[in-house]
């Protein structure tokens, strides 16, 4: 067996995870963790009955040993690895989950499901859970920072690729692993890091996101038994950072540990779309409320949207065919927001996309790049036949770092998505349980509140 | 659900896999497949009781639903996904498995275990098995060709990263999937492609290799249920080829399909080491037989090995600490071959590495680069105190494409490794069963011959 020493960067991260106590976590960080979890249950309860989850659950359940863990919003129960995978997939299937602004990673989906599954098989206090969750998110976001921006740009689905490390360290923290074993867990996680941007908009994406949660947990379980790995799985010459980034910055992993907290850069979406669309949708919803545009969609001649060039690069998708694609299509988002005055999940379905009126309206969208706009800003100008354009500008969209969703907004999101998701879950008890997590003795029992009753 | 069209390259590969029949497979290809399988059982029976497998089996078994499938050389039985993972890990744990020369990938480990596990849960003739195996190997090796050489050089463990596609298509072939569903399987496989060179020499490597077999099979199971994926998981802008290669050559995937067969470029190792060490070991074994060197190891002053610069780049590893590392260390390989006159698995253990005499002798190794040497050639010059060097040159090492192991060599390898592996398996019946595979009605029953009896 290898007499491993730990590498400098992987070792520093592992020592930090091993040493950090609940008392070391600032109050704002603790609260943000709860906000992330309210949002997590909201999006998991929205996604849990999607066809992707129906198909995945059907196959995965055949390879599940026992029924120790809850599948959120469903009646099936699974072993902890399977439940971790399915719950991560549910939370991310609509890309409506949280966004770590520096990297556009979704940090909660890979980490929370691993811990929630574990909590159903061993005693776990709310504080231990929150501490491990915060540390797992910290690790995956720091690793994501270290490989950004070239990592995602090249085609790595950063939520999956980096998430597996967060899950591994979070579970390892619950197991009380020593730093050396935590580095081993990072090593087995590094063997399982994968996920491609090419799969976005298809079911295959969810396999990768589910694996991030599942395989991180598996890596920690292996490390606990002495299953070893390389000394420097992150910073090694052929380690994760160098292999998946054109210009890795390892100091992002171990710099100022315990001084800055990545979860404070986490945000929550008001609309089930790529975050760059937030200000566009907000402008369109305001336009839809203007009396002069009431019932006038058929007379719109031209729609000009102005924003940072990233807006066009990420969302110029005319003629999309599915609800999934519509979530990253400015053409569809603009049309549906203007016509329906709403931009919730029902506005981004295959049926919504098939509406010929929306397709016709979307075809009138023109982009204007202006890099003086922040990514969270946009201007939408709508012109009716023979009239002057009606213009709405948004300086900072809701859901962005400058105008975060409030706690009440997040509760409302959970209530609405829970209602629409078809699970029959009663949201109020779950909401209260999450806000009181740090007073809870037994996190496992919380999952009873999230099990599907239909 | 996505109305997928298939991309040009992924689609062509899928159509080839769907359309190819047993009658289309040339006799030499059929026979090479059997040779690959003899070698596969040899190395799996060698690795099955390694500590890596003991630990992995202990953890994986807890998450295995049922006992449908055999774990080679062990008494445990597992579900088919778990058995696929463990059997792939066994076959590769010592890096003693087959080598696809153009890419240095190990093609059999990810593919055969998925099919063998399936064969224990559904009727499968030997011809159907061999056909699916040949097509799976063809697919993974072509994908490996398309991303080489930058893929491995950057740090991707090509056996794992490309193997998952081979497993997916092999299983999909058994399921009789249509081309569109085979592309979906490639899509879910692309979400799961991973594995880093940094993990070589540690247990973590085996997680990635196991996943290649497991997750390819899982991808085919998902695709069979309609679980969709991107149109072009391989050649898409953010697909596997572009993301994991600096200069992808998609035509390597779909060029001359059915006209050249990659399994004909497969080779089998006589020694449990990196293939570039083959000629060096062979020279040292010959030197060890020279009367003037008998018992003279202590008087060796200098050892010069001359070969292609790749030899030095891949194997200049003094002071290795573990048997695993020793397998890619010229210093250890030279020392142990000279002193013991053997180079089998017992010569590459932690105990062998710990021998101070071998360490001292290994420290006397000097490299001399000469790119006029082929990779399968080397010269070793040993100089005793006060004497002229004794020189042995090897033009083409055994096990390379010019001097492939014979069928009898492969049988002998299986017998020897089976005896050393500790499984108690009786090799003769297994050997005969593999050679007669194309006459067998039921491949599943073959696995009874490979189950551990100790």
From TrEMBL, chains A, B:
Residues 12-250 form the MmgE/PrpD N-terminal domain. Residues 271-436 form the MmgE/PrpD C-terminal domain. InterPro entries: MmgE/PrpD_sf, MmgE/PrpD_sf_1, MmgE/PrpD_sf_2, MmgE_PrpD, MmgE_PrpD_C, MmgE_PrpD_N. Belongs to the PrpD family. This is MmgE/PrpD family protein. The lineage of its organism: Bacteria, Pseudomonadati, Pseudomonadota, Betaproteobacteria, Burkholderiales.
